[in-house]
Design brief:
Layout lengths: L11 H15 L21 H12 L20 E2 L4 H13 L4 E3 L23 H21 L4 H9 L7 E3 L4 H14 L4 E7 L2 H16 L3 E8 L8 H17 L4 E4 L3 H17 L6 E4 L23 E5 L7 H6 L11 H9 L35 H26 L5 H10 L5 H5 L2 E3 L5 E3 L10 E8 L5 E9 L9 E3 L27 E5 L8 E5 L4 E2 L9 E2 L4 E3 L6 E3 L1 E3 L6 H26 L4 H4 L3 H17 L9 H35 L12 H25 L3 E5 L6 E7 L3 H24 L9 H24 L4 H32 L6 H8 L1
Parallel strand pairs: 1-2, 2-3, 4-5, 4-6, 6-7, 7-8, 20-22
Antiparallel strand pairs: 8-11, 9-10, 11-12, 12-13, 14-15, 16-17, 18-19, 21-22
Amino acid sequence: MEASSSAMLKKYQHVLSLAFAVQEINGNPKILPNITLGFHIYDSHFDAQITYQNTLNLLFNLMKTVLNYNCGSQKNPVAVIGGFDSETSLHVATILGIYKIPQSLVILFGLQEGEVLRAVEIPRDSVSGRELRWRIQMHRRVDRGRSLRSGERADISGKAVSDVTQLSSLYRMVPNEAHQYTGIVRLLLHFQWKWVGIMAMADDKGEKFVQTLEDKFSQHGICTAFTHRMPTQSNILGVVAFLDRFMNMTLFLSSTHVNVCVVSADTHMMLDLQVVLNLVERDMKPIGKVWVMTAHWDFSLEPFLQFLDIQVFHGTLSFAIHSTEVQGFPHFLQTQNPYSDTDGFIRVFWEQAFKCVFPTTIRKGSEGSCTGWEKLENLPGPFFEMSMTSQSYSIYNAVYAVAEALHARHSSRTRHGARDHEDHLKRLQSTAFQLHPFLRSVSFNNSAGDKVFFDEKGELVAGFDIINWITFPNKSFLRVKVGSLDPQAQSDGKFSINDRIIAWHSKFTQVKPLALCNDNCQPGYSRKRKEGKPFCCYDCASCPKGKISNQKDMDDCFNCPEDQYPNSGRNQCLPKKLNFLSYNETLGTSLVVLALSLSLITALVLGIFIKHRNTPIVKANNRNLTYTLLVSLLLCFLCSLLFIGQPQILNCQLRQTTFGVIFSVAVSSVLAKTITVVLAFMATKPGSKMRKWVGTRMANSVVFCCSLVQASICVVWLSTDPPFPDVDVQSVSEEIIMECNEGSAKMFYYILGYMGFLALVSFIVAFFARKLPDIFNEAKFITFSMLMFCTVWVSFVPTYLSTKGKNMVAVEVFSILASSAGLLGCIFSPKCYIIVLRPELNSKEQLKKRNK
């Protein structure tokens, strides 16, 4: 196996992960038995010309390159693992595609650029801040200039990467880029961060990052507080303006109140950001923000952390390609020493890592000389980590993917009867392009237990880990996995995060940071858009009467359910109270006591009249009518109890009809009494023909006929549209009125109207008969009682229509009791007075005297 990668020393762990994977495979008898894998590592120097040259050297010769001519080389490349730089990898793919050699790319979405500052060593205490910035800028300009001299342009690679799936020989050992954008949005929404900044490079790849995020943000209600594009520099004449832009960005970051910033964390972007943060540390107050980094970023990739207080990155949240700790890798690292033959970079790395040198003859113990006893685990984390990073894990999987594909092809040829192993190996070496079908369909579980396979586009099917970076003053750090994004999981398990274990920047005192344009609108308020401002900036308006909002930042208030009503703060719905005239409340109890008391009085009066039924005063005014009237009044008082209590089907159907019929009997009895008085006077005249009408038959006929009409109306009502229990949730905001719906309201008013008609006729007849000679002036008493009766029911109608709920029922009950009590008092109290208190007046002699 051949491998071409920009072997920068800060990426030395990637080289070791490659060597470790090859060593594991060669030592595993179950994969490619009797076949030993090897590798070569080439440095592209981030230069297109050198990349093309080394790719051709890889294919044809170690020395002078002659196209399509391979003589004396022991190299038999069947696959190439590219580097993290998208532009370099695509240059390699251009050549490899011609010769059908598969390339398994470890490339981060086509957004990451090369490691320009791969070997810069500037002691912080030896240069000033301004000189430091100048050296950084100059070194970056030189590398960019070299790329331009080779005829390459940044927008070419950006376009190529966006169309990377069109290269059939190219496989990506990273998940689809769209998943990371989705993860960023889900992360922001999880913490309700709606006001965030975006930072990226001012090139085509950075522009794509910004435009894609802004589009997704707008779809999910997230606003972009600012968008900063780090400047690129390729002209020495523009250095001053370049540094001015850095200074302006420094001033902005130190003054803005935006707490969350999403960064496209490729190498150049993070270099520029570190320059800005260094400027802040020297001249301004520290910046405390939540940095949300893309999966490009890793502390171990940053060369200038020695000049920066990395506490500024404490609490950073970053995405990382999903990785699992590989057993045996830490031990493999511990066994490395300057004399191991793992690769050809170990001595160069050793000198830079431990700041020592290897003289021609090593002088053991001499100051500044490498002893070979130095330990990798003693190196600070930002320079070298003992645990496998996600980038190294991708390289590890890439090696295994190629090995598994080779093994599948080898097994396939063996099953088809290869003559001998040597012939088969030669065919394997000469037809590397035949590896593609096996690489596309490769699927295996690596030693860490993760399943590795590609989708139809040649992209790794995997997810992301969400890492919380915890830094310490000694420039050490911890990676804490706090969440994950798994595109293959069910919808509710695709994104998960554990808030409780996240460490935030000290500025936020371990409280979840807020990222809003303004304070939240509290429950009871709704958002009101500010003119001329982004939709994330708004005012808060109190909910209108009758509506509530029970969450923060609601777009609109809403009505409570019908059985609930808003509280005073308009942020909660309270259950409505049931409203009906209950026996347990004071009003209901009072009416019950009053009805029973009047019933008892009526029964007592009836008893008195029955006891003295043979006395002249009882016999004088039609005894049967008197009994009928008293019984009907007694029932009127008792029927009022049907109106008290929770409405049910039976009492709803009975209360109005029973009241109507009984009251009609009572009023008909009064009318009959009045008519009896008139007829009795007319019958006393000589030769009068009215004598035949005087008697109980006529009086009973009047009562029966008048009551029959009312009963017929009630029967029609109950047969067509009877009353029924109902609830009214609209009339009173805080109560549910439990009532009897009258069904046909017309029939109810027919009953009242008919009773009013009978009362009016009785009043008129009694009024004209009030001065007729009557022993006990009953006509006069009936006139007063009918006047009271009509007054009560005339005032009842507007009062009834203007009230709701139990008050409306109480008005009707009171009207029944008052009108009935008026009849009882006006008609029977004078007679009871004579019967009980003046019995001497209740005699025939007194009647004769009164007549004279």
